[in-house]
Amino acid sequence: MEDNKDKILAVVNGEEIKQSEVDNFIQALGYRGEKFNNEEGRKRLTDELINRKLLFFDAKKTGLDKDEIYVKEVKKQSEELLKDFAMANIINSVRVSDDELKEYYENHKDNFKVQPTFTASHILVESEDLAKEIKEKIDNNGDFAQLAKEYSTCPSKEQGGDLGTFQQGQMVKEFENALIENEIGDIVGPVKTQFGYHIINIKDKTEGKVKSFEEAKNEVKQTLLQLKQQQAYIDATDRLQKEYKIEKFY
């Protein structure tokens, strides 16, 4: 299939239909467009574009473009399009400099923190006695993952109790405190929570920190740009409300 956006596929009443129009048609169809993204499908869509061109020319010929309903709809859509274009013009005119980015970062460092993370496995059971029994087996070189599969009531048992890596604040307080107060490599418990009794294997953890400016730059830019765009819109509408007469009946 030739990848040439300017390739002319048909000419209808002197107007060209190019491959780019078929590409746009496929894209507009969303997931349904996939079935047309082949040689036969593109031919079918080109035929449909030809038919639409024919309808357009015939509508112009018969004066359908002068129909009152059509004219009103065109005016309505034109107004909405111009409103959207005016708003986009305000938003797209906003720029942020590196100095502004650095100043915003320095004044809002707390917004760019990386939370502490933990990597852990656990075994969850209903009774403290059973939890102590399992902990004793682990202390005597029992296999943590195998014991998790055998005893744990948590769905993570299928992965040997593995909970993966998670941020501080995602687990209940008692569980999290055990992670904070102990070290990497420790197996602690029983730890009581609302869910039962846990034996926890602390595999890894990282300290929380504030991202450097370079690490946070894209995030800072996105945040500051959005704030400035919002302010630009407010400033523009405030100015226009003073410039034009407004009558409210609500």
Structure description:
The protein is an alpha+beta fold. It has 3 domains: 65 residues, Helicase, Ruva Protein, domain 3; 78 residues, no CATH class; 92 residues, Roll (Chitinase A, domain 3). The protein has 8 helices and 8 strands. Helix 1 packs across helix 2. The radius of gyration is 32 Å and the shape is elongated. The mean pLDDT is 93.
Which secondary structure elements does this structure contain, and how are they paired or packed?
Elements: E1 8-12, E2 15-18, H1 19-28, H2 39-61, H3 68-92, H4 98-107, E3 113-114, E4 117-125, H5 128-139, H6 144-151, E5 162-167, H7 173-181, E6 187-193, E7 196-206, E8 209-210, H8 213-243
Antiparallel strand pairs: 1-2, 3-8, 4-5, 4-7, 6-7
Protein name: Peptidylprolyl isomerase
GO molecular function, one term: peptidyl-prolyl cis-trans isomerase activity
Keywords: Coiled coil, Isomerase, Rotamase
